[in-house]
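>> received
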Amino acid sequence: MLNTMLVPAIKCKMRIDNPARGIEREPKSKRERSLTPAEIAPLGDALDAHPETTSCNAIQLLLTGTRKGETLSASWMQFDLDAGVWLKPAASTKTKKGRRVPLSGPAIALLVGMRKEADPKDPYVVPGQAKRDADGKRVPERLPEIKRVSSAWCQEAGLSVQVPKLTPAGKPSVDAEGKWVMVGKPKVRTHDLPHSYAAILASSGLSLTIIGALLGHSQARTTARYAHLLDDPLRAATERVGAVVTGAGKAGAEVVPLAGARPA
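>> returned
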């Protein structure tokens, strides 16, 4: 943090050196969380029932593997719904490279419905008031609404835990009876939804190369964190071989457990 703050100070000639440069940073452990199929089903029901459809639609688009920034800045010109593809411009992607992303049937149906309800004068897929940064780039301001909706659907889908509400001083709030005021804390973030998309792909047996292409990863090590999820399809494949080797697929054949001792 200090190193980042001192870099512009040197550019503005407020300092001539950066004393924080070269200091080793404490390693950070990345949080990995993906929704299971059993969790995704009630999530969809909660989103369908929520009255704030715009934010719900944006959240559902995150389950196509796209990043939050790409979703909120997407314009209708980027979509070819007849061909079922999303043409992401280089300016909107993390790798700064244009991408052609195929869309699933449910994603196309969602976008077609959003298009019918969209204001013809609004070029953006996720409408809402917006401001522009110093470079003139559009900055969506729907994030507060999406966070509120996320808290609501996590509560409805059973994906939140009750924790004490904290005061500005960081102490638990209490009611008139002196009891802690409890609030729901989501166990899932919107950032976890694209990760869930990748997890489903890996668990389905797709290669890391294909997963990386769908997610727009420029480096193989970025996709490698999903490698452990390939265990299930690999295990299923090796079980099929084991069944053939032991004769489990033949009528009347003796099945010899691989983990046990072989008979003499």
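>> The longest helix spans residues 231-245.
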